[in-house]
Amino acid sequence: FDLTDKEALVIIKGRDTDLDWHLYDTKRGATKALHFDDTSEGTDSNGLKAFTNTGFTVGSDNDVNQSGKRFRYWVFIENPGFFQINLFTGDGQNNRFIAHDLGTMMGMSWIKCRDQSSRSFRCGITTADNGSSGQFNLDDGDQWNNDGGAITNYSTTGTTLMNISGFDDVNANGDSYVQYVWSRGVGSDLTNAQIFGDTMDQSMVAAGSYTGNGSATDGPKIDLGWEPEFVIIRCMTRSGGHGGGAYFFDNHSKWTHEDSRTVQAHEKNAEATNANNGGNANCRRQPWGFWVN
User: Fold this and answer.
1) Which of 57, 58, 84, 190 stands 20 to 30 A from 11 (CA)?
2) What pTM did the predictor assign?
3) How far is CA 205 from CA 36, 136, 148, 238, 254, in A?
4) How far is CA 85 from CA 25, 80, 107, in A?
């Protein structure tokens, strides 16, 4: 990919040993690193050093280039109906609307304060056509919640606007923020998301929920209509410790029922073998799937 003329998010995570997550994007610029924790943005001159016409270049930082170790990376490129990056300054006001150009209802939004520590990495997800939503922190395993609508969506304006509160995590007065927002890709606004593929009638993203049944051999089957390359699964009722966070899966590491390799956003741990695909516990989980054309 030529990342010199496109806006994109790059996420890097070590596979073989305990290493920190690194998030970079073209709008904030190379070397500007964020992590799935409550720290502020930092400058890492030996992390992702440059965006290039064939991808990106990394330096000598062990978190992105430890000798002999394997790494995962995911790249999301801005496109209507799929993904967008926004930078904004907080105003401390409730019911603030943030514009986006997805042309569809928001499916998932990550917001992180760039210049203050002790601010959680917030994730908001829209779960229905009426804009109902829930939130959790990517930097911990706490339970899914709806605490005052820190990140909200509305059906009447959801294709162009999303709503945030005055919470410090997402909108403190004078602070700088970055937002990564993905289309929902399903439901009443599906037509505006089905603009990909050879015949321009396929979506690249889907969001929804299901109820686990605890079975290791016959778990829920989520029919997206296409094979995803990347999935996030987060339990909506479980909280705390290992297993309570957001699981990241992709079909490049391993993607089989017998041997799925996964990492959790709130942990620095090396990837783990998870034969039960995220546990499939008896709880509602929020699955998020991506297909890259």
Assistant:
1) 190
2) 0.87
3) 22, 20, 27, 25, 20
4) 8, 11, 14
Structure letter (DSSP) for residue 168: H
Token look-up 């040993």 returns 17
The alpha helices in 98-218, defined as continuous H runs, are 168-171, 190-193
**Residue from 91, 138, 112, 110 nearest 42 by CA:** 112
Annotate 94-115 with b (16+ C-beta within 10 A) or e (fewer).
eebebebebbbbbbbbbbbbbe
Cα→Cα distances 48→25, 129, 227, 252, 264, Å:
10, 38, 30, 21, 21
> Residue 132 in 3-state DSSP?
coil
Angle ∠(4,8,11) on CA atoms, nearest 5: 120
Residue 92: which of 167, 179, 178 has the closest Cα?
167
Strand arrangement, sheet containing 161-164: 96-99, 161-164, 151-152
Amino acid in the structure at residue 195: I
Distance CA 245, CA 139 (A): 8
The answer to whether the Cα torsion of 121, 125, 51, 176 is positive or negative is: negative
The tens digit of pLDDT for each residue in 33-90 reads: 999 988 899 999 999 999 999 999 999 999 999 999 999 999 999 998 899 999 999 9
